[in-house]
Amino acid sequence: MTHALRPLALFGLLAFVLAAGSASAQSHEPFTQARFDALQAQGALVLVDVYAEWCPTCAQQQRVLEAYREAHPDVPLHVLTVDFDDQKPVVRQLRAPRQSTLILFRGGERVWFSVAETRRDAIFQALNEAAAGRTPGR
After folding, report:
1. Which residues of the chain have pLDDT under 70?
2. Right CATH number for 26-131 from 3.40.50.300, 1.10.3720.10, 3.40.30.10, 3.10.310.30?
3. Is the pTM higher than 0.85?
4. For labelling, which of 9, 26, 48, 70 has a CA lying 20 to 30 Å from the CA of 19?
5. Mapped to the 3 state alphabet, what secondary structure does the chain carry?
6. Residue ranges per domain, the chain?
7. pLDDT at 122 (0 to 100)
8. Of 103, 94, 108, whose CA–CA distance to 44 is shortest?
């Protein structure tokens, strides 16, 4: 590699690493108790998304959450997904009454709970307030 191209390659690698770090905080990952506990211990902002593949409300929520990630890539939000049909013990543990339940935690504290909420403004507001250290709706 020529000396002139090294700075470009280094810059590209740095941009990739930063983007990957941001994406990991914003990506959906399957809920496991170990991951949830670790994120809570770190004081992370965690949205637990109880969904079902067949649920149209859940699909709408997914679109809103994707729009949020695109609009706020700097918010270190971790989304853990719980399959309503396949993870019944977790659904009961979280006291999710049905699919399309969103539960937001900041560290070990539950700060927001919503069932069937699809309004972009309401979801964005709750996530932004929690990211700013405030309890949504208060």
Report:
1. 1-27
2. 3.40.30.10
3. no
4. 48
5. CCCCCHHHHHHHHHHHHHHHHHHHHHCEEECCHHHHHHHHHCCCEEEEEEECCCCHHHHHHHHHHHHHHHHCCCCCEEEEEEECCCCHHHHHHHCCCCCCEEEEEECCEEEEEEECCCCHHHHHHHHHHHHCCCCCCC
6. 26-131
7. 98
8. 108
